[in-house]
């Protein structure tokens, strides 16, 4: 069975045990950190840098025209309301996006539920995940992109903001802004290996440093088991 993408008019943002087939339990469940989501998916830093660059340009241009630094800073200060509005909207969007999102891991599948206006669900059998990787941030949060087969693979824009950046032609779903990402990656790695009946040596703890990466890989394995009605 391949990964399946569904959209619903109304769906609970969090998978519950009663939605799973008999005997299938939740191993791990989390929501993304909204602040890290604002910084990464919604590029809050870039918005701040753009406003700063524009403010510096206005200061320089006004000083050049008037010879007054005070007039330059006063002119740049007119950007503050727009900056506050832009930052506030991005933070609000990141917050409601995180509230509407959940990542759920079971021994058979990984389920992503997300979407504010139109909730969607991506059900990924563990046997369809070729490999996973981990990118840690300095605060311990991180991203876990998943490489899956072509069959049933959603498009980049269907997955966003939970798509691996710049993978337009071969979109990869990504558990984004996951709190305590190193522990989450270990659980995902264990579940992937267990799903094919294999074992692996203990994975060393990655250090929570910006840009650090730790990869976990498994061989392709078939998926068996009934798919629940909602999951």
From TrEMBL:
Domain of life: Bacteria
NCBIfam families, per database record: puhB_PGC (NF040894)
Lineage: Bacteria, Pseudomonadati, Pseudomonadota, Alphaproteobacteria, Hyphomicrobiales
Name used for this protein in its record: PH domain-containing protein
Keywords, in A-Z order: Membrane, Transmembrane, Transmembrane helix
Membrane-spanning parts: 42-59, 79-100
Chain positions covered by the region annotation Disordered: 196-231
Keyword Membrane set for record: yes
